[in-house]
Design goal:
Shape: globular
Distance between the termini: 40 Å
Strand order of the largest sheet: 5-8-2-1-11-13-14-12
Helix content: 40-55%
Radius of gyration: 19 Å
Structural class: alpha/beta
Mean pLDDT: 88
Order of helices and strands: HEHHEHEEHEEEHEEEHEEHHEHE
Number of helices: 10
Low-confidence stretches: none
Largest sheet: 8 strands, mixed
Number of strands: 14
Length: 286
């Protein structure tokens, strides 16, 4: 590194200082999935970000999905993935595979990756310590073993954070009878963030954020007050798969989370850019 790079490096660290101080000992819940999970480069960037935040005294909780990995495993055993209105239909066998892939393969590989990047992580799933309790999701269409969260008990997460671990949470849960259910990871992250009274909830997605015109990335809406959301849904600006994402962010904010972010997981280090700059990178909900 030459003198110039050193000076630039020092400047970057100095400009990050107010944000580092602002988030010291605060809890941030990151929902991780999509492209950022399938690309090795992006995966390593996310892990580096999480370890960095954890090293400077920010308490990060990583909640993850794993749709592509589940599809791959179902394909291997010759089972077709069936989606109804964007939601996975989950029969009993699929629920068991979801548990195997999420709580086993994906969860442990993320824990191991965080360790490789110098972090200390602990893998948990919704069943551990009765963290996520659910019942069968009631909807007009039967989705099988898809759960609706009835209760969140964050004691295991707080215990892990207090001991200096990064909790990595996979979103499978059980009902009162011990049946396994698949839980939407965005919803689980939002409920966990609310129960932890987290500072921020960050949902990583495969789009730039909320766009005024969904075909034009330059129409990003950087900030939305939660009171504007119903109107944006009526206008069709929030539509399709964005509706549940944004509705769970709104619910988290109404329950005491300070800010919600929907950020572009396709950009390396998008978490750091969002947290440590004024401009940020995605859409912030306040």
């Amino acid at each position: 590194m030459g003198m110039v790079e050193n000076a630039v490096m020092a400047q970057i660290l100095v400009s990050a200082l107010p944000y580092i101080q602002k988030y010291d000992q605060k809890i941030i819940v990151v929902k991780y999935g999509g492209n950022a999970m399938t690309s090795e480069e992006l995966k390593n960037a996310v892990m580096t970000d999480v370890v960095l935040l954890s090293s400077i005294g920010i308490k990060v909780v990583l909640v993850h999905g794993g749709g592509p990995e589940i599809n791959e495993m179902l394909q291997k055993i010759g089972k077709e993935s069936k989606f109804i209105n964007g939601l996975r239909y989950t029969d009993k066998e699929t629920a068991e595979i979801v548990q195997m892939v999420l709580a086993g393969k994906v969860n442990k590989s993320l824990v191991s990756l965080l360790h490789q990047h110098g972090g200390r992580a602990l893998g948990l799933c919704g069943t551990d310590g009765n963290m996520i309790v659910c019942e069968k999701k009631q909807s007009s269409i039967d989705l099988g073993y898809v759960g609706e969260i009835t209760d969140v008990n964050v004691a295991p997460i707080i215990d892990a954070l207090d001991k200096g671990y990064i909790p990595v949470v996979s979103t499978v849960a059980t009902d009162d009878h011990g049946e396994i259910y698949n839980i939407n990871a965005d919803t689980a992250a939002a409920k966990i963030a609310a129960a932890l009274q987290a500072e921020n909830l960050i949902l990583m997605t495969d789009i730039k954020g909320l766009l005024r015109n969904k075909d034009d990335e330059s129409t990003l809406i950087p900030e939305v007050n939660v009171s504007e959301v119903p109107n944006l849904i009526r206008q069709g600006i929030i539509s399709g798969g964005m509706i549940p994402k944004i509705e769970c962010s709104v619910e988290a904010i109404r329950r005491g989370v300070k800010k919600g972010f929907i950020i572009d997981g396709r950009i390396p280090h998008s978490i750091l850019i969002e947290l440590f700059s004024d401009e940020g990178i995605g859409t912030m909900f306040i």
